[in-house]
Fold this sequence. Notes:
- By secondary structure, the chain is an all-alpha fold.
- The protein has one domain.
- Helix content is 79%, strand content 0%.
- It contains two helices and no strands.
- The longest helix has 34 residues, at 13-46.
Amino acid sequence: MFNKIKPDMGNYIRYTYAALAAMMTALIAYMIPFFTVHRIIKPLIGGERLSAG
């Protein structure tokens, strides 16, 4: 699908790639808190105690 619109981008193709990179960075930044919370909750569900290390 990207190849279909690529010829129409012309000089703006670098902005498209920059926008894709920004979108991926934002997606990763959005997902980090969920993985952090999962690491905290997983031992509690399994019946383990939390440790400081």
